[in-house]
Design a protein that fits this description.
- The structure holds two protein chains of two kinds.
- By secondary structure, chain A is an all-alpha fold.
- Chain A is about 65% helix and about 0% strand.
- Chain A has helices at about 5-30, 40-50, 60-85, 100-110, 120-125, 130-160, 170-195, 220-230, 250-275, 280-305, 310-315, 330-345, 360-370, 380-400, 410-440, 460-475, 490-520, 535-569; strands at about 205, 215, 405, 410.
- By secondary structure, chain B is of the alpha+beta class.
- Chain B has three domains: about 15-95 and about 210-290 and about 570-680, no CATH class; about 305-315 and about 455-555, Rossmann fold; about 330-445, Calcium-transporting ATPase, cytoplasmic domain N (3-Layer(aba) Sandwich).
- Helix content of chain B is about 50%, strand content about 15%.
- Chain B contains 23 helices and 20 strands.
- In chain B, strands 1, 2, 3, 4, 5, 6 and 7 form a seven-stranded antiparallel sheet that branches.
- In chain B, a hairpin with a 2-residue loop joins strand 12 (about 385-390) and strand 13.
- Classes of the chains: A mainly alpha, B alpha+beta.
- At the A-B interface, helix 14, helix 15 and helix 18 of A face helix 7, helix 16, helix 21 and helix 23 of B.
- Chain B: Its EC number is 7.2.2.6.
């Protein structure tokens, strides 16, 4: 078999094999069962005592969300201030300057929402201090926020009827100490041994073969890279992210980093099964996500390995479409990464998405539009829950009952919230792109730093895709870019900033509110007439709902961008 | 009795005419706004009308007038079709209810005036419309009962065939649970005084008609939720269509207003949006066709969710009353002698059990002997002796329950034969009722009475079980008998020796576990339980209190009606779900028709998406819109009749409906649109 494809298969297999026990472990952590990380308990108790948290106190859905939003606001202020004054803070061997307030605003928001829409380059835009205490810190706690919110969702279905979704603070702390921290240490060690820098020294300088002297940025990168992958954040230490030879030195680290992207999101699906003791439900959800994930991978790997038809026409032999890819990783591994990173709202890259063949480009955009195939840490399942609600509603009716999910009737209020969240994505992605297209088409001469007429490197379909990608990525809190778009200017900073905030918090608030409302309702036991949400038939229905909703919402946009490009190549 | 005797043709011409008229008047935007999906179509129609006028005024960029006018007409038809569906459902429901109401047209009423012109309690003949609540009227044999009411004095046989279709007369009397009379039925014998229980125009039928007519029709909770979901899809497509304008500007593609409006109307779920209220009305109408009056649409919806049915044993599970099935003579007693004694003892017994003993005796060849009246004394059943019988030629023949006869025998100084005692126990444990017969304190033998389980009831319970509905038998019998019958009939649970409060407790208990419970009842003491149940079906013959408490009234007084009610509810919900799926699945083909058509000029390569190979952009758009319009009337029969429910388990049902309406919904429009395109092309070319 082709070694590239073999590499992909090994990576995926390893990933699934690791995810299952990890899922069980995560469930045990939150169920309060003894685990081997219980040595963290004193530290956790210390944190609770210092912060005045009563770990036994439950919260209803409103209290839970209030706690979550409050701490997020604090983090924002904290991050914004540090970025503004990083020049005068310690750990700045390269002497990088303060971030300007608007850039600091953008950066703070971007990492606060577990995204990595970076309008700067890590090497020069941040100090080691801010890399560690702003970026890395947020990469931990925002991922932990996602997990904490997911556990709240679990709790809503754990008891027959309950008001208690658990304690946000406890889940936040435990997600960090028990899941993210230990895993990051393991990954960081592997990376460090493979050549990723982990020192506080400043730039190094080497003499190239041509005889030039080149400054090479370094820093305590390995730890940060580990959490950017594991926390589905994606913001790289270096500007070109994991395509950088120090951020992702070899094929082995590439495997480790790909696994790090998806392993927690997959594990959380299994955790649902263990936590609720509904393993069959977890299996069906896993199957739905995996079927679509593998389909996307197959399309991308096929088109990337097939190469660029334009080069074929010139009669030049090619080993896959290698434009924008790293030779040490190859076309298949890059294609796999592109799907993994867009599935999970990670946004790290090991090759340039702008250079993907049109069909792969369409796939990864669609992947981000769905944003629930495994999805971001914690939030992926919350997004999936919204699709689940729609599938439950329609198929519930189709079996002749008013819709219910895990024993709770889904009624007008829940549908209303589901509707809002569903609408939000379509509105932000299409509205944003339409706004950009409008300025580009009608006001190319606007007196902005970068005039709309100069936004796009590539006109025509590909240019359209660049704009569509930017908003899709922002809406998915993904952060990867279809570069080639001049995005560091007022229009893109402001518009994507708004999209980032709305698309992070509303899709968390929505599902938690639904769960809070459902959990309060009277429990309806299953009967032979009840819709079985843990059947593969229902899984098929969920796939249909996911595809139809996204296809219907985005088909015209995709047709004008990547699909038109595909048919024109 | 035929249950669906009132079933009329789907498209009866008088109803269609009425519905056509209504569908035009429903175009009023103020009425339309209640249906967000169709309201946006109406806005689209207005826009197209404006575009047509604009073109007539000289605008050149929007395509030909004929094409735009065609789109306008099709949109208008889409609206009319949707209105027609609703109007037809209303007309059918109304016609159904009217046919019931016709029976109570103006008649004369013999009003009893407490203080008359001449006498106290003077009877005065007035038109029935003059009767008010709490008035009392008199009905004698041959009179038509002028108004719904409750008998306060007397007993009468009544012909209720006008309402129920059942020709056998029924007995109604004051006091008991069978004290209600319905307007339009006829008194055959005797005389009753009746108190009017409703104001004119406020009877259940009147309320039902109002529900159907739409004046007081409220959306049911599930209908509201579904409307929200459909509105969401509509909003998504508003976003899709509005953003398409800058997208097209970017691609330098002019898109006509007609194309925008068409794309929008095709994409929004007009099929389900147009049929939604018709489906709801049709649900109530189907209930009415089964002779069940529903007091709200919600009750029908809830019926689909029922988990537990409380069914009375007598009349539902068993046919009427117990019947004699066997004579068991005691040891040493001749069978014929014993049977003759049984028949003699039962001659004066007017109860159904007594009659059945005489009947069974005749079957066995023993006829009642001709007797001189003076030699015979009949002994009636009393609560003290708990036995009845006959004194004949010095012979005292007694028939009664085991312990009653045992007392007589022992008091007479005789022994109760052990073999008979054994037989008695055996009969009891087989669900039967033993009646012991004695002659002069000597035990002659045992008569076995058995409940006759209705034929086919076992299958119906099996069907309910597959639907996930639990059946509970309620009976006054002892545990042993109840258990036996419950097993034989195939019910899941039973309440033995039931008192009215037991029903109530059982319902509460089930509801605490989150289950939805239905029951049927007729007596005043059933009223609290009927009110407590999620679906309470009162028999029309029942007391006014029972009818007020329940949320459905069964005109047939048929206890098995609950089963039908469950299926009607499930059908209603399924029809909504399947048509929603179908409607949304249709969009796939419509996209493939319209999107390539929109960009044919600027992006010719997108013709690769024109998989149906439609003739031209105009024909493609027209075909999609036409398909979108005519699918509504094509689905009206399905919406009104309801998707057939098969109790095959939820998983299989989902698979089946997903296959038919999901996959079918994706594939059918590809062929439909292509076919229409071929036809449209003939006219254009």
């Amino acid at each position: 078999m082709n070694t590239e494809i073999l590499g992909v298969l090994v990576t995926l297999l390893l990933c699934f094999l690791l995810a299952y026990p990890l899922g069980k472990y995560i469930a045990n952590v939150f169920l309060g069962k003894p685990t081997f990380t219980d040595f963290m308990l004193p530290l956790e108790r210390f944190i609770y005592r210092v912060s005045g948290i009563d770990p036994k106190k439950g919260m209803d859905w409103k209290q839970f969300l209030k706690a979550m939003l409050t701490i997020n606001m604090l983090w924002f202020v904290y991050a914004f201030l540090l970025l503004c004054f990083q020049g005068s803070l310690p750990l700045n061997p390269d002497g990088n300057a303060n971030q300007s307030p608007d850039l600091a605003f953008n950066t703070a928001i971007s990492f606060l929402v577990n995204c990595n829409l970076q309008h700067y380059s890590g090497e020069s835009g941040l100090s080691y201090f801010t890399q560690l205490f702003v970026i890395t810190f947020l990469q931990f706690v925002t991922a932990a926020t996602g997990i904490a919110c997911l556990v709240a969702l679990f709790n809503g279905f754990k008891e027959k009827t309950t008001n208690n979704l658990g304690n946000f603070w406890v889940y936040l702390v435990q997600s960090t100490t028990r899941i993210l921290l230990p895993l990051s240490i393991v990954v960081a060690v592997i990376l460090a041994f493979n050549g990723t820098p982990a020192s506080f020294d400043g730039k190094d300088s080497i003499l190239t073969l041509q005889g030039d002297s080149v400054q090479v940025s370094r820093g305590p990168a390995a730890g940060m890279i580990a959490i950017k992958q594991l926390g589905t954040n994606g913001g790289g230490w270096f500007g070109v992210n994991s395509a950088h030879p120090l951020e992702n030195p070899n094929y082995l680290t590439n495997i480790v980093e790909i696994i790090s992207i998806v392993v927690i999101p997959i594990a959380l699906v299994f955790s649902l099964g263990f936590y609720l003791q509904r393993r069959k439900l977890a299996r069906v959800i896993f199957a739905v996500m995996t079927v679509m994930f593998i389909a996307f991978c197959t399309i991308n790997i096929y088109y990337e390995m097939k190469g660029n038809p334009a080069i074929d026409k010139m009669g030049i032999a090619q080993n896959g479409s290698m434009e924008g890819k790293e030779v040490r990783l190859g076309a298949a591994a890059t294609a796999l990464w592109s799907v993994a990173t867009t599935s999970t709202s990670n946004g790290s890259v090991n090759g340039m998405h702008d250079s993907l063949t049109p069909m792969s480009g369409a796939v990864i955009i669609l992947d981000m539009m769905i944003n629930a195939l495994y999805g971001g840490v914690g939030v992926g399942l919350l997004n999936y829950f919204i699709f689940l609600m729609i599938a439950v509603f329609i198929s519930g009716l189709m079996v002749g009952r008013t819709p219910e999910f895990l024993g709770h009737k889904v009624e007008a209020r829940e549908v209303k919230i589901t509707a809002l969240v569903t609408l939000l994505s379509a509105f932000l992605i299409k509205g944003g792109t339409a706004l950009a297209a409008y300025f580009y088409a009608h006001h190319p001469e606007m007196a902005w730093a970068v005039q709309p007429g100069n936004w796009l490197n590539n006109p025509s379909y590909h240019g359209f895709t660049e704009m569509l990608y930017e908003f899709t990525s922002a809406n998915a809190n993904n952060g990867s870019g279809f570069e080639g778009l001049a995005d560091n200017n007022i229009f893109w900073n402001v518009s994507t900033g708004i999209v980032l905030i709305l698309a992070r918090y509303l899709p968390i608030i929505g599902p938690i509110a639904i769960v809070g409302l459902l959990a309060k309702k009277k429990y309806v036991p299953d009967s032979a007439g009840t819709l079985e949400v843990d059947s593969y038939t229902f899984g098929l229905m969920t796939i249909a709902v996911i595809i139809i909703i996204n296809a219907l919402s985005y088909f015209p946009a995709l047709a004008l961008g990547p699909i038109a490009e595909f048919f024109n190549q | 009795m035929s249950k669906h005797k009132r079933a009329s043709k789907l498209f009866e011409s008088s109803l269609v005419r009425e519905a056509l008229k209504q569908s035009v008047s429903k175009l009023n935007p103020r009425k339309m706004v209640h249906n967000p999906v169709m309201f946006t179509v109406e806005i689209g129609t207005f826009i197209m009308a404006a575009v047509c006028i604009w073109i007539m005024a000289g605008e050149k960029s929007q395509g030909s007038l004929g094409y735009n006018f065609a789109i306008f007409i099709i949109l208008l038809l889409t609206l009319l079709f949707a209105n027609f569906a609703e109007a037809l459902a209303e007309a059918r429901g109304k016609a159904q209810a009217q046919s019931l109401r016709k029976t109570r047209e103006e008649t004369h009423a013999k009003l009893i005036q407490p203080v008359g012109e001449i006498f106290v309690n003077e009877v005065k003949v007035v038109p029935s419309s003059k009767l008010r609540k709490n008035d009392v009227f008199l009905c004698e044999s041959g009179d038509i009962i002028p108004m719904d009411g409750e008998i306060i004095e007397g007993i009468a046989t009544i012909d209720e065939s006008a309402i129920t279709g059942e020709s056998a007369p029924v007995i109604r009397e004051s006091g008991g649970d069978k004290s209600s009379v319905t307007g339009g039925t006829k008194v055959l014998s005797d005389k009753i005084k009746v108190r009017v229980t409703t104001e004119p125009g406020e009877s259940f039928l009147d309320k039902m008609i109002a529900l159907v007519e739409g004046a007081s029709r409220q959306k049911t909770p599930n209908e509201i939720a579904l409307t929200i979901l459909l509105a969401t899809f509509t909003l998504i497509f508003i976003i899709v269509c509005v953003t398409l304008k800058p997208f097209a500007d970017y691609a330098n593609t002019p898109i006509t207003i007609a194309a925008f409006v068409s794309l929008f109307v095709c994409l929004i779920p007009t099929t389900i949006g147009g049929l939604l209220s018709a489906i709801g009305i049709a649900g109530m109408d189907r209930a009415l066709r089964a002779n069940v009056i529903t007091k709200s649409g919600k009750a029908v919806e809830t019926a689909g969710d029922l988990d537990t049915l409380l069914l009375d044993k007598t009349g539902t599970i068993t046919i009427g009353n117990r019947k004699a099935t066997n004579f068991w003579p005691a040891t040493g007693v001749d069978a014929n002698v014993f049977i003759e004694a049984c028949v003699l003892a039962s001659l004066a017994d007017e109860t159904p059990e007594g009659k059945s003993i005489v009947e069974l005796g005749q079957v066995k060849g023993i006829k009642a002997p001709v007797m001189k009246k003076e030699a015979v004394t009949y002994v009636q059943f009393t609560a003290e002796t708990r036995s009845s019988g006959i004194d004949l030629d010095g012979q005292k023949i007694r028939k009664g329950a085991y312990d009653a006869i045992r007392n007589i025998v022992i008091r007479g100084g005789k022994n109760f034969p052990p073999a008979t005692e054994e037989r008695v126990n055996l009969i009891s444990s087989n669900g039967g009722t033993p009646l012991v017969v004695s002659q002069n304190d000597q035990v002659l033998g045992v008569i076995e009475l058995q409940d006759i389980i209705k034929p086919g009831i076992h299958e119906r319970f099996e069907r309910l079980r597959k639907m996930g509905v639990k059946t509970v038998m309620v009976t006054g019998d002892n545990r042993l008998t109840a258990k036996y019958i419950a097993e034989k009939a195939g019910v899941d649970d039973f309440i033995a020796e039931a008192r009215p409060e037991d029903k109530m407790n059982y319902i509460r208990h089930e509801q605490q576990n989150g289950k939805l419970v239905a029951m049927m009842g007729d007596g005043t003491n059933d009223a609290p339980a009927l009110a407590q149940a999620d679906v309470g079906v009162a028999m029309n013959s029942g007391t006014q209190a029972a009818k007020e408490a329940g949320n459905m009234v069964d005109l047939d007084n048929d206890p098995t009606k609950l089963i039908e009610v469950v299926e009607i509810g499930k059908q209603l919900l399924m029809t909504r779900g399947t048509l929603t799926t179908f409607s949304i699945a249709n969009d796939v083909a419509k996209y493939f028709a319209i999107v390539p058509a929109l960009f044919i000029a600027s992006i010719p390569s997108l013709q690769a998406l024109n998989v149906m190979n439609l003739h031209s952009p105009e024909s493609a758009i027209l075909s999609a819109v036409v398909f979108n319009a005519i699918i509504i009337p094509l689905l009206i029969p399905l919406a009104l009749k309801g998707v057939s429910y098969k109790p095959i388990g939820a998983k299989a049902l989902l698979r089946r409906n997903l296959f038919i309406y999901g996959l079918g919904g994706i594939i059918i429009p590809f062929f439909g649109i292509k076919l229409i395109d071929l036809i449209v092309t003939m006219f254009i070319a």
